[in-house]
Amino acid sequence: MSDLVLPPGRGFPNGLVIPDDELHERFSRSSGPGGQGVNTTDSRVELSFDVAGSPSLTELQRERAVQRLGSRLVDGVLTLAASEQRSQLQNRAAARARLTSLLVDALAPPAAPRRATRPSRSARERRITSKKHRGTIKANRRRPPPE
């Protein structure tokens, strides 16, 4: 196909282009839909990308991706399979879209740590007032004391 282009995002503000020669595709027979051609066409796609050895990624991006995708990597290589569609071309596009989504999530920098804050005085007063109001509503539901 062509190079894999990631749009600009958090962690790669200028976008990212992964050359086609870094992506390896393997084709096999799919177990999914296909009618009469299911046993004759190689429509299943396995897309592999060497995350740990990719020259397209910076050192920081490589470390971040290897850490976040660690459970899915085998010897530093990420492999995705797509066999949802009947055509090989559609499965290739689906695998590339999945790889793009995974890389965008993996390369994003971690969220800033939460800074502890205190509720304001007015917020505390509103909370107490609403609790008292709720208590009076429940107290009014009770049976009045006998006279």
What structural category do the secondary elements indicate?
A: alpha+beta
Distance between the amino and carboxyl termini: 89 Å
Radius of gyration: 27 Å
The string of secondary-structure elements, in order, is EEEEHEEHH
Proportion of residues in extended strands: 15-25%
| Helix content class | 25-40%
- Average predicted confidence as pLDDT: 88
Which geometry do the CA atoms define? elongated
The residue ranges in which pLDDT falls below 50 over 5 or more consecutive positions are: none
Question: Would you report the number of β strands?
Answer: 6
Count the helices. How many? Answer: 3
Main sheet: strand order = 3-4-6-5
Mind describing the biggest β-sheet? 4 strands, antiparallel
Strand-helix topology:
Elements: E1 4-6, E2 16-18, E3 23-28, E4 44-50, H1 59-68, E5 73-74, E6 77-82, H2 88-107, H3 121-141
Antiparallel strand pairs: 1-2, 3-4, 4-6, 5-6
Task: Please sum up the structure shown.
The protein has 147 residues and is α+β, with helices and mostly antiparallel strands. Helices cover 35% and strands 18% of the residues. The strands form two sheets. The protein has a four-stranded antiparallel beta sheet.
Structure description:
With about 150 residues, the protein is an alpha+beta fold. It is built from three helices and six strands; from the N terminus they run ββββαββαα. The chain has a four-stranded antiparallel sheet. It has a two-stranded antiparallel sheet with strand order 1-2. The mean pLDDT is about 90.
